[in-house]
Amino acid sequence: MSQHNIISMQDEQRLFTPFPSKTAGTHIRSLEEYKRQYTRSMEDNEGFWAERANELLDWFSPFTTVLEADMDTPDIRWFTGGTLNVAHNCLDRHLELGRKDKTALIWQGEPEGDVITYTYEQLYEEVCKFANVLKKYGVGKGDRVALYMPMIPELTIAMLACVRIGAVHSIVFAGFSALSLQSRVVDCEAKILVTADAVLRSGRVIPLKSNADDALTACPSVEHVVVVDRAGTAEQGNLEWKEERDIWWHQAMQQSDIKAFCECEPMESEDPLFILYTSGSTGKPKGVVHTTGGYLTYAAHTSQWVFDIQESDVYWCTADIGWITGHSYIVYGPLALGATTVMFEGVPSFPSPDRFWNIVEKFGVTIFYTAPTVIRALMREGLEWTQRHDLSSLRVLGTVGEPINPEAWIWYYENIGKNKTPIVDTWWQTETGGIMIAALPFATPLKPGSATLPLPGIDARIVRPDGSDAEPNEGGHLIIRKPWPGMLRGVFGDPERYKSTYFERFPGMYESGDGARVDNDGYFWIMGRLDDVINVSGHRMGTAEIESALVAHPTVAEAAVVGMPHPIKGESIYAYVTLKADEEETEELRAQLRTWVRKEIGPIATPEVLQFAEELPKTRSGKIMRRILRKIASGSTGDFGDTSTLADPSVITELVEGRTELT
Ligand code: 6R9
Description:
Elements: H1 3-10, H2 31-43, H3 45-56, E1 65-70, E2 75-80, E3 83-84, H4 86-96, E4 103-108, E5 115-119, H5 120-136, E6 144-148, H6 153-165, E7 168-171, H7 178-188, E8 192-196, E9 198-201, E10 204-207, H8 209-215, E11 224-228, E12 246-248, H9 249-254, E13 267-268, E14 272-278, E15 286-291, H10 292-307, E16 314-317, H11 324-336, E17 340-344, H12 355-363, E18 367-370, H13 372-380, H14 384-387, E19 396-400, H15 406-416, E20 423-426, E21 460-463, E22 476-480, E23 490-491, H16 495-502, E24 510-518, E25 524-529, E26 533-536, E27 539-542, H17 543-551, E28 556-566, E29 570-579, H18 587-600, E30 609-612, H19 626-633, H20 650-662
Parallel strand pairs: 4-17, 6-7, 6-8, 7-14, 8-11, 11-12, 16-17, 16-18, 18-19, 19-20, 29-30
Antiparallel strand pairs: 1-2, 3-13, 4-5, 9-10, 14-15, 15-23, 21-22, 22-24, 24-25, 26-27, 28-29
The structure holds ligand 6R9.
Ligand 6R9 binds at residues 278, 323-325, 400-403, 425-430, 451, 512-514, 526, 528-529, 535, 538, 540.
């Protein structure tokens, strides 16, 4: 995370006492109640989670054991003996609970007029139909289905259809390239890929199926591709079609044998639910595996307590479903609670920077969850955009993805929440399945820039490199000591990596990879990643991944990638590239290399700055000294600390000069 954030956060002293909630509500309403719940959850951890699992979910058969856990192997099992189905919990049971005609999903397309609302009954029917389509094309329990789709209702429908029949979905963000898609599809051996002809973004039509076609040239497991007609590009003759492989979504759904009823597959609590790939510090993205009973309990539990979702709420999380935030807080959490969830296809700035506020006003959104990068970008646009809209429906605001700088927090609080709406800053990860550290909106006093306190059930600590407890205010590794139901259960196909990434360094604990400190009041201040992962606009990018994309280019000999502070994105990507002998450092090649990365991984991985370097700073044993590269990227020209292990100290001077020439 950027330096200015850390500094301003260390000085942050403001405290905002909680507001009384205007809704009656059954959830936690005071700090005392939070403390009582927290203490109880630590003393009787299994009792606490068993109670939540039974309160929140409908089980076909009750679980007989709450937890079997070995954090060393690791082998974690929650709610064994229990069977359930996630689609049943998100849809079917609500039909009997009087929510048949309640709006489950409000979809706002990118064009203002494209709005579709689904009642719980309508969503149920669509999901049943698509589940039948999947079955018809050979998908069964345990099979993987890859979803590479825009933010359209068919994505939510496809997810729920998969889990209804026990298939495991693996969603690949539609902004990823053909190659990124390919490596994920190959890794999880998906049987079917669901995609769309194109994505609508900022008024443009961006082809999507053509990427899928490119990816599938080397994905032998994929038997069929289901294609949603989002943009009508086929009519313009712009779509390649493989008759025996490709199927139109709308045609498949209209077939006479596709009924609007499909039995739910009873799943064991520990049956896999989905795989979601996320970047790590080394190698290829990891397929994080989440399982059925624990994940859904956790998604529902955190949705209820952190967002205070009530029956009448209109809840909107602005994330893309291609990331974990969308999985847990657009789809599974809110629908398990029977809430009304909003899904938006577009971006905050198109056609104008008041798009979000327009949507809040249009649908009377009461709970709004977004990312600091969005807040910072909209802050820059000025208040004329927020003042145009009636935002008085809002009662809870949230943020996620990266630390929020106090300035952005205060802007959000004053101009969106109008000084009367709590902000929940939620710290969590793809691996944690749901929110871990966050305020409870009508209970926790807030400090701008702090994710505040661990949720009941979560034993979060800061430890030193040797595993001992850090003192208050001492920065260290953020770890979790007790298992929790939403935690990952594996890295798909790679048990060794599962263990070594998360459970090896600190025995018996889950290692998050984040640095943090806890202040004298027990508040957590997240300082960002401690490993080689960059957080660009709230999205995790592994430096190793970008480096290997760069060195795959025929002109590149060596590459090193680091994060650089960025006023809106939090961090952006800074790449140092050494060319092969005889290659020339031209502006054209610089542009080519940036485009290359974009094509290899996707637009979010494009280096903001690409500096040619004769040489990289290395130790005598040949290790690149990233610490120095990070310093130069952030604009510092002196004080490089201990450079005695550098093989050739003059490299630094050259790099600093090279940077100055760039800017
Ligand atoms: C949910 C999500 C996880 C990483 C995580 C941390 C950063 C997320 C944060 C935050 C400070 C917050 N992060 N929320 N840092 N404050 N409220 O973003 O998952 O994409 O896996 O990223 O994001 O560094 O380790 P994921």
